[in-house]
Write a structure and sequence with these properties.
Oligomer: single chain
Structural class: alpha+beta
CATH topology: 2,3-Dihydroxybiphenyl 1,2-Dioxygenase, domain 1
Radius of gyration: 17 Å
Number of helices: 4
Shape: globular
Distance between the termini: 29 Å
CATH class: Alpha Beta
Order of helices and strands: EHEEEEHEEEEHH
Helix content: 25-40%
Number of domains: 1
Length: 163
């Protein structure tokens, strides 16, 4: 059992809009505070995300993001699709909000990206704990003759393929 937990706290222009979005994916509301500093949290199968409201923010310029690794990213993807269909909703693959299709990664895993109405990018990827060192070394060997900048870009693509 893990002793530590990291929970992202992301901005949104409307808590009501963001909460509705996540509830349509199957998340439940854990906490909601209105008033001078609106704040809320949602959870789903061990994933917990917190939000604070910034009414003046523009979702198109949001830097909010988090990376969620899973041993069953395909199951997460399918579950989100089922909840959307059950609630009579469809998710666009472009724009804001969106959910990309499930994509293969360079290390043999897969993942997808979710962008909520606040413009926050949530990256869901297959957990690669044991393979990360091997794949990073492979990229290093393959790009040994390239310049440092190109090498770093390749390594970044291996670690963050959906960014």
């Amino acid at each position: 059992m893990k002793a530590e937990t990291l929970i992202p706290v992301l901005p949104c222009f409307s808590l009501k809009t963001n909460l509705s979005f996540y509830m349509n994916l199957g998340f439940e509301i854990l906490y909601q505070r209105e008033g001078d500093s609106p704040y809320a949290s949602v959870a789903w199968k061990g994933i917990e995300i917190h939000f604070f409201e910034m009414r003046e923010m523009d979702p198109r310029t949001s830097y909010g993001a988090c990376h969620i690794s899973s041993t069953n990213v395909e199951g997460l993807y399918e579950s989100f699709l089922k909840f959307l269909k059950r609630n009579g909703n469809e998710m666009p693959q472009f724009g804001i909000p969106k959910m990309t299709s499930l994509q293969k990664s360079p290390w043999g895993g897969q993942g997808f990206e979710l962008v909520d109405p606040g413009g926050n990018r949530i990256h869901f990827v297959q957990r690669i704990e044991q393979r990360l060192g091997e794949d990073a070394a492979a990229v290093e060997r393959e790009t040994d003759s390239q310049k440092n900048g190109e090498r770093e870009a390749d390594l970044f693509k291996v670690i963050f393929p959906f960014w």
